[in-house]
Amino acid sequence: MDQVKQGTDALFILLGAIMVLAMHAGFAFLELGTVRKKNQVNALVKILVDFSVSTLAYFFVGYTVAYGVDFFSSAHTLAERNGYELVKFFFLLTFAAAIPAIVSGGIAERARFGPQLAATAVLVGLVYPVFEGITWNGRFGVQAWIEATTGHAFHDFAGSVVVHAVGGWIGLAAVLLLGARSNRYRKDGAISAHPPSSIPFLALGAWVLTVGWFGFNVMSAQTIEKISGLVAVNSLMAMVGGTLVATLMGRNDPGFAYNGPLAGLVAVCAGSDVMHPAGALVTGAVAGAIFVSLFTLTQNRWKIDDVLGVWPLHGLCGAWGGIACGIFGLPALGGLGGVSLWAQLIGTTMGVVWSFAGGLLVYGAVKAVVGLRLSAEEEYDGADLSIHRIGATPEREASW
Q1: Three-class SS state of 185
Q2: Which of 79, 219, 300, 358 could form a disulfide linkage to 127, CB 3.0–4.6 angstroms apart?
Q3: Coil, helix or strand for 26?
Q4: For 345-383, how does the pLDDT look when each residue is reduced to its tens digit (9 = 90+)?
């Protein structure tokens, strides 16, 4: 029976890893559909190569930083317990690799390829794993201090703060250091629209992310006996709440409609195992409102050129999710308890400060040493031709 359980646990978390791996295709197509046609190839290549760099950085450095585990042993040792520890690494890697995938959407259309890969290695190898280890492995004594101070540890079941807020606030730092796309904000005060290139591809990316998210959340249990149908239903309700509010507030704009479910799912990750479905619905609805209102403010009033809105979607909705866990997880509001609003506020604030400071440091160093941005001519030609020497529709371009 022990062997059956070990094999079942390994299969369970492997399926989760595969589902979250598929989400990276969602990141790619969401970005592909949002950027202009001259940057579509770059969107696809960035996500794939960033994932590969993330794998090496996390395998050799990041996983050890977060969990104190390395893989410098024989294959026989690694294969023990049906290789569960290796599959667990694979699962958690797919979370870690979401950090550069999130950032990629914010800095699209004007970032250099090589420098971004260098930043990815440092972020996934050092910056992200420190906070991951603090939250999910009790490293460095921080969780013990929060629990002693508030009565409960900081709770983030599936990464509203650990993954999404961290990625979103790193993305904000990168966007601010990189600057807006050429002619996005003109000197006369006019704003160039730079509309999405393909709503169908944008929608495809959002659907792939949405489906994969049920692996992201439910499989965060990591073993079969801890699986919870509550997590699945809460994820569903948050997705629905985010979709409906974003569609309503966005006046049926498909960009808002298809980012709405993502906003809701980002927010519910932290408390999906402790909330009542009604609380999850409200959490997702508030996240949809946050995304639409803050995306509009960011782009139009504050003139921060965050192409896919990764800061409002992941950074702010993720932070809201961390706080919402401490509200709707309380028994008084139908939750299972075991959480504290103060603990959630402390942990969420720590995640925001750590990630934004880390993003400024990493991207600031890269900018100072090798530069972050394409030249004006390269940006005008588009990242596809400037970096990859081919466009998304080469046969059509050759016929011109």
Answers
A1: strand
A2: 358
A3: helix
A4: 999 999 999 999 999 999 999 999 999 999 999 999 999
**CA-to-CA dists, residue 266 to 141, 158, 261, 263, 286, angstroms:** 27, 9, 9, 5, 11
Tokens 């040493």 map to which residue?
369
pLDDT at position 72 is: 85
Residues 6+ apart with CB under 8 A from 297: none
Alpha carbons 236 and 238: distance in angstroms, whole number: 6
Coil vs helix vs strand at 276: coil
Mean of per-residue pLDDT scores for the chain:
95
DSSP 322-349: HHHHHHHTSGGGT------HHHHHHHHH
pLDDT for res 40: 97
| pTM: predicted TM-score of the whole model, two decimal places | 0.95
